[in-house]
Amino acid sequence: MSFVFDQAKPIAIGCDHAGLEYKDALVKWLTGKGFQVKDFGTYSADSVDYPDFTHPTASSVEKGEAAFGILLCGSANGVAITANKHQGIRAGLSWQNDVAELIRKHNDANMICIPARFVAYALAEQMVEIFMNTPFEGGRHATRVGKIACT
């Protein structure tokens, strides 16, 4: 099922300690633009385990409670691996604008994972903006996306 950004639903966001600064800034930026945001934490710079925050964030997207999700950690690999354990999640790791566009266009990603230790904050904002505004292309990509699930 193709993900379409439903502005009536909140945006789910979560992170570990390495992504905290960016998460807090993205929440402020998104709410300032009039979006609802559901913040799944973490809420302090104390060291935490990323799955503890990834699973609830991904579950909210998977259940349809959130329009899409944003996850942040140092490399974004841990949160992407964890989120993709959820059958209804297609979490894409993005480190540049072209990748943010392609994970939507070609992979129908419903979560964007951002490596906070490797991208500038301004780029994180740009990638989220692109992710939100890029539709899934469908066609041959829909066939491929349809083969991802292990059911």
Automatic annotation (TrEMBL):
Q: Which InterPro entries match?
A: RpiB, RpiB_LacA_LacB, RpiB_LacA_LacB_sf
Q: Which GO terms describe its molecular function?
A: ribose-5-phosphate isomerase activity
Q: Name one GO biological process term.
A: pentose-phosphate shunt, non-oxidative branch
Alphabetical UniProt keywords = Isomerase
Residues binding D-ribulose 5-phosphate, per UniProt = D16, H17, G74, S75, A76, N77, G78, N107, R117, R140, R144
Q: Is Cytoplasm included in the keywords of this UniProt record?
A: no
Name the catalytic site residues: C73, H106
Family that this chain belongs to: Belongs to the LacAB/RpiB family.
Protein name per the record: Ribose 5-phosphate isomerase B
Natural source organism: Sediminibacterium ginsengisoli
